[in-house]
Automatic annotation (TrEMBL):
Protein origin, superkingdom: Bacteria
Name of this chain's protein: Copper-translocating P-type ATPase
Signal peptide coordinates: none
Organism taxonomic ancestry: Bacteria, Pseudomonadati, Pseudomonadota, Gammaproteobacteria, Chromatiales
Similarity annotation: Belongs to the cation transport ATPase (P-type) (TC 3.A.3) family. Type IB subfamily.
Locations listed in the record: Cell membrane
Length: 293
């Protein structure tokens, strides 16, 4: 049987856009030590816009952007959308590409004629064992310092361009971190994005600890890492690649319209994309305990 107080709390919660799929999750939420947030789409809006770009000698910006947009053509990733929109705004016609493939947590690839083309971030460069030429490196450093995500265009093993994309931190995020701190909770951020971006966002929000350049399959390992330190952990995420981490956490919280996979993996679902609802639901779980005593 479900304790009455929990049942009532659950229906109150539902009216505020908080759905409790697993009542044990609400009870576990009282005992937490740390809350881990996925960065993109959770602490930030997730919408990416191209704010700057640089090309190697022999390339012009429009052809580099058009090629990147073509290769990103079949990707649903917000980074892909940002690059496609930038090309659309300039009304560029895109070259034909084929054999598109998404490289999870790294980028995308396709072929244009005889050329192999890749678009992606630092983990892609690592996999391809590519060094960034100094010209693009200084562009990347500048963008990184501003907290922008840097994405590279590679053709036939040569880096030809870099794009700086900026995502926007949600208005509420800073307050969320402060409130969780005042509740005695440690706040951790988890992201597939670069070290530089993670560092900038964590500093801006006053986040205690972050893990960056985490491949999708390794997000749940980071949850386990904290649990192995004896901590009870909540994980807040929205994406398909957050699902294993949501399951692994003591309390999994899916946020926003979320993907079905994320929603099915979470004990608690926050219908709106407002991270302040994380604070609300944790306070609600603590209030429930007081009523029961
Ligand atoms: P997150 O959910 O933290 O954004 P992802 O695993 O979706 O993490 O992406 C991690 C990184 O992989 C991105 O920051 C980017 O560097 C690279 N990446 C993933 N998909 C794409 C894509 N379609 N185009 C370019 N880069 C990508
Ligand atoms: Mg995400």
């Amino acid at each position: 049987a479900v304790p009455l107080v929990v049942a009532i709390t659950t229906s109150v919660a539902a009216s505020k856009g908080v759905l409790v799929r697993d009542r044990l999750a609400l009870e576990a939420a009282r005992e937490l030590d740390a809350v881990i947030f996925d960065k993109t789409g959770t602490l930030t809006t997730g919408k990416q816009g191209v704010v700057d770009m640089a090309v190697m000698e022999g390339w012009d910006k429009d052809s580099a952007l058009a090629l990147a947009a073509a290769v990103e053509g079949d990707s649903e990733h917000m980074i892909a959308r940002g690059i496609q929109e930038a090309a659309q705004k300039k009304e560029l016609s895109l070259p034909k590409v084929r054999e598109f493939e998404a490289l999870k947590g790294r980028g995308v690839r396709a072929r244009r004629g005889d050329h192999r083309v890749f678009v992606g971030g630092p983990r892609l460069l690592e996999q391809l064992e590519l060094e960034v030429p100094s010209m693009l490196q200084s562009f990347a450093n500048g963008a990184g310092e501003k907290g922008q995500t840097v994405i590279y265009l590679i053709e036939d093993e040569a880096l030809v361009a870099a794009f700086a994309l900026s995502d926007v931190i949600r208005e509420e995020s800073k307050e969320v971190v402060e409130q969780l701190h005042s509740m005695g909770l440690e706040v951790v951020m988890l992201t597939g994005d670069s070290q530089e971006v993670a560092k900038a966002v964590a500093a801006e929000l006053g986040i205690d600890h972050y893990f960056a350049e985490v491949l999708p399959d390794h997000k749940n390992d980071k949850v386990s890492e904290l649990q192995s330190q004896g901590k009870k952990v909540a994980m807040v995420g929205d994406g398909v690649n957050d699902a294993p981490a949501l399951i692994r956490a003591d309390v999994g919280i899916a946020i926003g319209s979320g993907t079905d996979v994320a929603v099915e993996s979470a004990g608690i679902i926050l219908v709106k994309s407002n991270p302040m609802d994380v604070v609300r639901v944790l306070k609600l779980s603590r209030a429930t305990r007081r009523k029961m005593i």
